[in-house]
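REQUEST FORM: STRUCTURE PREDICTION
Request ID: SP-0412
Submitted by: Lab K.M.
Chain count: 1
Length (residues): 226
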Amino acid sequence: MFFDPFYLLLMAPALLLSIWAQFKVKGAFSRFSKVRSSSGLTGAQVAQAILDANGVNGVRIEPTGGVLTDHYDPARKVLRLSEAVFGERSVAAAGIAAHEVGHALQHKAAYSPLVLRQTLAPAAIAGSNLSYLIIIVGFLMTSSTLIWAGIGLFSLAVVFTLITLPVEFDASRRAKAALQNLGLVSNSDRAGVAAVLDAAAMTYVAAAVSAILTLLYWVLRAQSRD
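STATUS: Completed
RESULT:
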């Protein structure tokens, strides 16, 4: 069970999709990081402009290390932007900064998928961490109860990845609208913003496909054992 050709065959589409998505997002980010935005604002300035325009107060904007590590922390109301976004004046920086502000706008509006994701997060993290151990122990001990309990826990992680999809797509929609409505991007900039955000969205699609296929694998293994 520790080397299963069926698992590799089943997961091949997800692996290929993930590789393609990573290639697309890195390529789009690299390309449009070299294109200066028409507004001339840094990513941090773009984020602040959108927050101010939407009356979102109390959100701090901080730089963070790494590449494409940008995220919004709703618990602390902190918008963390990577170095390639925080202080850069590129089209890519504007798009990513606006996307992360999109999550802050969701937070303010109590966007239901975001609220659900926040509520589910602790259980999903625990389920993801413990499920494999419980499933493997279940197979070793030939315990159907443990196997299906582990599968149930892993299902929480799968649901979490599925809920993440509308959250991310909606944040990108809000980002594109805000950039256009505030005049922070030109028509030519908008194409670059869309390329970066649409490519990034595919990484979440790839993660969801991978999670679904992994769940399917464990269910089929459990059924074949039963």
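NOTES: The beta strands are 60-64, 71-73, 78-82.
Reviewed by: T.R.
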